[in-house]
Amino acid sequence: MCGNRFGKKRRPEENAERMSYADFRLETVVETIPNPLRRIVRFAFEWIPIAIVAGLWELASGTAVSSEILPPPSAVFAVSWELLVSGRILPHLQVSLYRIGVGLGLSIVVGVALGVGMARVKPIENFFEVFLALIYPVPKAALVPLAILWLGVGTETAILIVFLACLLPIVLNSYNAAQNVDRNLLWSARMMGMPAWKLPIKVVVPATIPSILTGIRQAIPIAFIALVSAELIASNRGVGFEILRHGQIGNYTSMFAVLVVISGTAFVAVRGYEWLERRVVTWT
Amino acid sequence: MNRTQAHRQHPPNAKSTHETMVDGHVTITELEKVYESGDERTTAIEDFSVTVPSGEFLGVVGPSGCGKSTLLYLVAGFLEQTTGTIAVDGDPIDGPGTDRGVVFQDYALFPWRTVMGNVTYGLEEKGVGKEERRATAQRFIDMMDLDGFEDKYPKELSGGMKQRVALARTLAYDPKILLMDEPFGALDQPLRESLQDHLIDIWRDLEKTVIFITHDVEEAVYLSERVLIMTRHPGTKKTTVGIDLDRTQPREELVLSDEYTATKNDVWQSLREETTPGGER
């Protein structure tokens, strides 16, 4: 198992170490199983909690709670599947993913530059530090009405909100790491003839990459949160808008189904990112 | 002793206009380093003068916190002295330069670069072409017994191997002076000894000036032609002890010889006075 569902990647050895402190380790049981089966068993263990909750939910729906307001998961998943297979959700998903891609992409470029700049250039730090501290506690959804005022209802507003929400984890991670770059690495580069002005690009950024990647990983789920909160208010397309639309016409099963699609997409995005990261950045 | 004489054939003050093999002569004059933070002034190094002739292997020992490392980083040009001068071949230094190469205790390899990428780093900065860069790097990789590990990343290497990569990286861009900050301090005894012998061979073959910081008296005596003992806080030169040993004999005989034991004792006594509370200042 690499990573948990919240997208915090753990190295296998770190995992082993953590587990060894637990009183009961499923892993000791799993290790007794022959290899091809082991993968399946691990996969099963990962999904068992979801299965339990879904089972309870299924039982509760229509008995303890009205299925009107709590549609059973069987129905919800069926509609989710139908939305995907029929392609009805795809144009909305496409719009939403585009907004996330652009917003997140911008936040990576700006965030890394800002983080590294703040860490290495005192005036930049002095200028931006206070803004970061002020923006940090503000829920980004609260900025949607203002964004509508500037950019109108639509893609630009969603991109701006995604950008702002993702900017913080990326800035903070790269800022912290760039501040703590091993002094001897900088000195090593200097002694080999590198002029001081080249250090940020040639040493600080590569040394900061592991933290930048962590920042991006943290930003992916945040991007989905920001996207949906923007689309709920300021859009007439996208998955967030779909939730609202189904809710307004009282189609709660579909509303849940869209939610499942969003959650699944975000999950796949984080897992895919982690997979890519492990293959591209092999030196960490 | 005969080694030193061989290296001293060139007049130590001759300024080199071309890249000769034998230069790398360090003169430190009345060096002082004061750290200031707020109102607090801490004198790390005071009234420190020493001349290191070309090709000398100078060991520096001192009690912990005496400013050994500060001294080394001042010579490297990483830190700036408060007063005094440091000159290489007669020219006062101005910041870091490729005439000096540092080997750090914690290796300080670039984790995002392979062994080959680390060793070619200095050559890239020098503007050496790709083919030549790789050929030169390969020579030092082989010299440090690292062939076969060219494409490994530092995280995949053991401590001893990392330090060999660090040494190859520094040697590859051919600094005249090696500044070594307890480079083998984190390694276990057998590994340390093998790297010490390796270093002696390299120093002999490549004719480098070496300033070697260590807290280990045996290491200093075994490696150096001369050992400089520093006083406790603030650090200054207490004395230097010339090491005159017959290096033709293998290590196991050398370390049992009377001269070795006597010299080691002299250095140890002198250092002990600095580390014992109430000892002579």
UniProtKB/TrEMBL annotation, chain B:
- GO molecular function annotation: ATP binding; ATP hydrolysis activity
Q: Which SMART domains match?
A: AAA
Chain ranges of the ABC transporter domain: 29-257
UniProt keywords, alphabetically: ATP-binding, Nucleotide-binding, Transport
- For this protein, the parts annotated as crossing the membrane are none
Q: Please tell me whether the keyword Cell membrane is annotated for this protein.
A: no
Domain of life per record: Archaea
Pfam families reported in the protein's UniProt record: ABC_tran
* PANTHER family xref list: ALIPHATIC SULFONATES IMPORT ATP-BINDING PROTEIN SSUB (PTHR42788:SF13), TAURINE IMPORT ATP-BINDING PROTEIN-RELATED (PTHR42788)
Q: What is this protein called?
A: ABC transporter
- Species, as recorded: Natrialba aegyptia DSM 13077
